[in-house]
Amino acid sequence: MNFTVIPAIDLRGGRVVRLKQGDYAQQTTYDFDPRAQAGSYAQAGAEWLHLVDLDGARGGSLENLAVIEAIARDGMRIQAGGGVRSEADVQRLFDAGVSRVVVGSLAIREPERVVGWFSTHGAGRITLALDTLQQDGAWRLPSAGWTETESRTLDELAPWYAAQGAQHLLCTDIHRDGMLAGFNLDLYRHLAATVPSLAVQASGGVRSLDDIRAAREAGAKGVILGRALLEGRFTVQEALAC
């Protein structure tokens, strides 16, 4: 399987933003038009774009759908989520032109329901977002934009989903998200060993091209690149060359 470099745009109120460690009170707003920024990534050679509706992730509705649809019309393959709470939401995103729908909170709270969508839409069109942080010796899975704590752990759910035929897993170490501290390579080595059938996307903390290479060596099949690209630490072309 090819290694995929996926630029990310987080949306809040229709604008490009980044949060630190998922904290809505620690927001950086960038003076970029989301559609133009997506176009620049496409021009640079990126085939996929990761879009997150942060308003939806916290509030439970697809509040930035119009922006997502506008970007999809320009032709990039989009992986998008944030606020997916029902199959109707999944269908709305597909209807908007999204290629893969990211399911986070619901994937943690109602896994049987999400697996049902594999047969309806195809497992390859659903990306599970099991974003995690380590507490008390376990990889915990906060939900609702990382504002609520759930009882299930990463080591319970990831193998279960793999056994159900899941294909794509996005996993962010929340403590590293937006911190430019590098990927948690131990996390991705662990996932490569325990759920080798899943194409794991590494996310959270990338700061350099060496981090991208290290994630690939750790077993990740793709990387999500947010703040590092927005702040010009390297270019999409340089990332693709890794």
UniProtKB/TrEMBL annotation:
Keyword field: Amino-acid biosynthesis, Cytoplasm, Histidine biosynthesis, Isomerase
Keyword Cytoplasm on entry: yes
Chief location: cytoplasm
EC number from the UniProt entry: 5.3.1.16
Enzymatic reactions: 1-(5-phospho-beta-D-ribosyl)-5-[(5-phospho-beta-D-ribosylamino)methylideneamino]imidazole-4-carboxamide = 5-[(5-phospho-1-deoxy-D-ribulos-1-ylimino)methylamino]-1-(5-phospho-beta-D-ribosyl)imidazole-4-carboxamide
Biological or metabolic pathway of the protein: Amino-acid biosynthesis; L-histidine biosynthesis; L-histidine from 5-phospho-alpha-D-ribose 1-diphosphate: step 4/9
A Pfam family matched in the record: His_biosynth
GO process terms (BP): L-histidine biosynthetic process; L-tryptophan biosynthetic process
Location of this chain's protein in the cell: Cytoplasm
Stored SUPFAM superfamilies: Ribulose-phoshate binding barrel (SSF51366)
Residue numbers annotated as active site: D10 (proton acceptor), D131 (proton donor)
Gene Ontology MF term list: 1-(5-phosphoribosyl)-5-[(5-phosphoribosylamino)methylideneamino]imidazole-4-carboxamide isomerase activity
GO (cellular component) term, any one: cytoplasm
Protein family: Belongs to the HisA/HisF family.
Name of this protein: 1-(5-phosphoribosyl)-5-[(5-phosphoribosylamino)methylideneamino] imidazole-4-carboxamide isomerase
Species of the source: Dyella jiangningensis
Annotated gene: hisA
